[in-house]
Model the fold of this input.
Amino acid sequence: MSLEFGLNVWRLGSSRSPCRSRSPPGGFGFAGGSSSASFAFRETALALGIPSAYFCVVRPRVLMRSIKRVSLVGGTHGNELSGIYLVRSLLRQPSWHDFPSLDIDCLLANEEAIQLGRRFKDCDLNRCFSKSKLQDLQGGDERYESRRAQELNQRIGPRFSAEAADLCIDLHNTTSNFGCGIIITNTSSPNLHWKLQLCHFLSRTCPRVRIVFDCIGDCSEEPFLPLVAKNDLTFELGPQAHGTLQAEVFWNQRKLVLQTLDFLERLNSQTLSDEERSEKTLEVYIHTGVVHYPMRSDGSLAALIAAELQGRDFEALRPGDPVFQDVDKGDTIHWDEPECYPMFINEAAYVSSGIAFQKTMRCELKIPELKADGSLSIIELPSLN
Amino acid sequence: MDWKRRRTLPSSSVKTVAIVGGTHGNETNGVHLAKHFMRNPALVKRPSFETEVLLSNVAAIQQNTRYVEEDLNRCYLLEDLQNDAKSTSTLERKRAREVDAQLGPKSSSEPKCDFIIDLHNTTAATGVALLMAPNDEFAHEVAHHLMSLDETVRVVEWNDQADWPLCPSIGRSGLTFEVGPCPWGCLEPELFQQSRRLVMALLDYVEKHNSLVASGSPTRQEVSMKVFRSIGVSIDYPRAGEDPVGHVHPALQGQDFRELQEGDPIFMTFDGEEMTFDRKAHKVPEKYERVYALFVNEAAYYEKKVALMLMSCGEATFSKLAS
Done:
């Protein structure tokens, strides 16, 4: 775990305000004290005649331990080329000496799929890492990706164990107009705090950065590879046709990776600037659902993405806006659900499962200051009603 | 085989047209356009000829992959189709025999299908490129008409050689609709609609041609048109062993049909170094004063070691019935 508990002892009545009292979902056992609890304690102590001069309130404080072990993964899908070429390029000429506090393991996840130039050989590797799948897989599933998932779980994880890497960064591409996407699946606090400060930093140095939260709450059944580590980041860049390499995509993904390692190095050595640690707001998109293509009774697509929607990832889709076009009749189909912010519009890999795009809700999050002593805060997340 | 005689001549009417989708299973716009026509046969029906619509590499379509064992669009050489051992050696070879029997056969001077439209997509920015045999006059005539309707349409001639392993060569005449940029597995709305319009306009033109033939019009006219021709030179990615160590330069990305001049940047290595076009180093024959890039960053060509192909530009002349 990249947390340790410290004791915070201070005088009652001090101006130091405790962290927010919201319990993190699936949490670490962090029990943040609230200001009302310490007030009640003080009143009780006074009523018992205990001098008020020095009362100790013992409250666990969550401190961030250094990020040490980082796994950098390309080629989870064998035809998403920028991660594959970036990993190969870094393996030929590593620049790890720039990040002495980090122990970086750089690897290609799915060599067989890469050789074939396909997303996968037998089954999607990036759906093999849920808690139940990892348990099932010990039963001897012979598919290539199932066996490979076990190897990767041993190398990067094991998932849910203390030995797992501190962070896994998984490099992907999409045919949709995603821009420079940073997807966080495990959005639990307080680790979310430093990740959001990192995301804000990246959004200032790379173009069109979009932060996406894939899961709120218990993510143990989410099946994605980077969840094997204690913290996950997926760098999802597009548009890029699968099987091709686009200059801009390659260089932006490389920048995201190297800037992330630089931020972590400075976080570890406590040399982040005041501005980098300061309180901020950040726009994030929270995944809320999936939208399927209209289908025919024989299972074929009845409509395609409307030209007006193509390429408009992360722009508001409002009731009445064109969303699909009937393939045969040419009629426009209009959106009749509440406003959402679509992403993965026309992702090639999802067409065969009938998924047209995914819905998100846009919100602004307050990121508290990352204190110099390394203490982390709970991030308040909106409810998804 | 007298290929020239086998071609549809301008003075013959066209009796059957075939629209083929899914020669490559992940060229999804073409697959769905063919399926759209299969569901709506009235769109492609014309009074004076039959239109057949088929999906060729069904197994590859189901797996959303270019091919299962080998590229179907390299399986149609006559000598391969006639070689019993070779033509049953892979899934695609067997399928090629079936398609050949349905639309050809290539071995016959009277194939069943007079005109084949083979629908493809490419990740390169070709727009709508129509590819055809250099001596296929009727295909040139049809393409010329489509160019007059849509100025983004361009014509590219296949290499001048004795036979081609490509689907449209099974019939008397035909062409490949190469539409991009379109990622594998995606339905790209604007390109889908554009190719749909052009395929239907093609059928309208064939109908009009047949009317001219039926009216006994003897007048022919010579027409010339701009075409691109392969010069037999392609350029691979810079590699270290098997692995590319660079990508198409951003200045070249998406610039299909653009002239390439000495010193133009064509690649950037992963270390940020530029590599430029050098006629001598890239073995461009001197007789081609000006060359043009095509199939820049086509995904399927990474394995064929082609980052781009070089073309020359010239005029092709053909004769057609005057209206």
Summary: Helices of chain B lie at 3-6, 28-39, 41-44, 58-62, 78-81, 91-103, 137-149, 189-214. Residues 259 and 292 of chain B are 4 Å apart (CA to CA). The interface with chain A takes residues 28, 32, 35-36, 39-40, 64-65, 123, 181-190, 192-193, 240, 243-245, 247-250, 253, 268, 270-271, 297-300, 302-303 of chain B (CB under 8 Å).
